[in-house]
Amino acid sequence: MRHLSITILTALLLSACGANNTQEVAEINNDWTGNEIKIDAFTDEKVKGVTCHMAHFDRGVYDRLKKGSWFENPSNGSINCVQTGPITVGNIDMGKGGEEVFRQRQSPVFKKLTVRRVYDIENNTLIYLVYSRRVVEGSAKMSIASVPLYGADITWADGAP
């Protein structure tokens, strides 16, 4: 029993982990069973002046008991990113794989909702991709948001590419 209690406590602590630059903006009841849609806002640490809003699903107690997976949330996520101030681009990864800017656990060990930023140099656009990561199997659920830099007054910390 003690081992089970420690496991549950550890799982709860791990599932609460996320980016430290995140603020919950909305919590919308989806149905009578306690399922909710949550909207979080987060800022890109290396691109000042850009804020992303991400919607994701949080299962209620009834749904968790019915599905038999107490600690796991669905992998669904939707994202939109906008300019919310003067844009200053720091030392960002310019490669095709971009870099991770946000991660939120959807289960204690195996599943994360992840956001990556990719810079499209040809179109002068920042692209933010939200997708699910699983250790065992991937997920085809994804969403993107684009922040065009064309015509905007942008400060490049390391000089424009």
TrEMBL record:
<feature type="signal peptide">
    <location>
        <begin position="1"/>
        <end position="21"/>
    </location>
</feature>
<dbReference type="InterPro" id="IPR010292">
    <property type="entry name" value="Uncharacterised_CreA"/>
</dbReference>
<protein>
    <recommendedName>
        <fullName>CREA protein</fullName>
    </recommendedName>
</protein>
<dbReference type="GO" id="GO:0005829">
    <property type="term" value="C:cytosol"/>
</dbReference>
<keyword id="KW-0732">Signal</keyword>
<dbReference type="Pfam" id="PF05981">
    <property type="entry name" value="CreA"/>
</dbReference>
